[in-house]
Amino acid sequence: MGNSEGEKRDDVNRSAGEPVASVHASAKDIWDKADVIGKVFGAVLILFALAGTGFFVNLALQERAAREKVFEIAVTVLQSSNTTSSALREWAINVFEDTVHPPSTVIAQLKTSPLPSSAPKPGAVAYTGACENKTQIVCYFGQNGVASDCRQRPC
User: In terms of Cα–Cα distance, which of 106, 80, 77, 72 is closest to 91?
Assistant: First the structure.
């Protein structure tokens, strides 16, 4: 009766050549190593996640900028009254239609006439401001669409 169950376990561990305290210590060492490896793995995973997110955000911004540039080119083609290539005009109308989704009446009008331009035509005169203090500002626009000469004149 001298051998109780606790003594048997103690005898089994001792017969393996390891004391009971060292078995618990080696289990703790394994969990400590797993903790360190997990922290390193988590840090590396976070780095890859941030890099991947940044890559895809940058890619989306580049695609958006490219679409905007294509739209600007299409609008320039549609504003031109001397587009000789009907295929180019059709492309521009398709880009405009896909981007803006205008009513069909607008598309029909674009097929026959150019898109109105907000830039002044060369040689055009633009009056700014009302007739204040009996003077008015008159600007003349050059070939590049930039005001080349602005003067005050009496009303």
Answer: 77
Helix 86-100 and helix 104-112, axial crossing angle in degrees, nearest 10: 160
Residue 129 lies in domain: 125-154
- 144 and 70 inside one domain: no
**Contact in structure between 151 and 143 (CB atoms under 8 Å):** no
pLDDT by residue (tens digit) across 41-54? Answer: 999 999 999 999 99
Tell whether 14 is covered by a domain.
no
Q: What residues pair up with 125 in beta bridges, in sequence order?
A: 140
Tokens representing 112? Answer: 């026959």
What single-letter amino acid sits at 75?
A: V
As for how many domains the chain has, the answer is 2
Can you give the pTM of this predicted structure?
0.50
96 and 130 in a common domain: no
Structure tokens of 63?
């695609």
Task: Return the percentage of the chain with pLDDT > 90, whole number.
Answer: 25
Measured CA to CA, the distance from residue 92 to residue 52 in angstroms comes to: 35
| Same domain as 142, residue 106 | no
Helical ranges in 20-85 per DSSP H: 20-79
Contact status, residue 37 vs residue 45, Cβ threshold 8 Å: no
150 shares its domain with 98: no
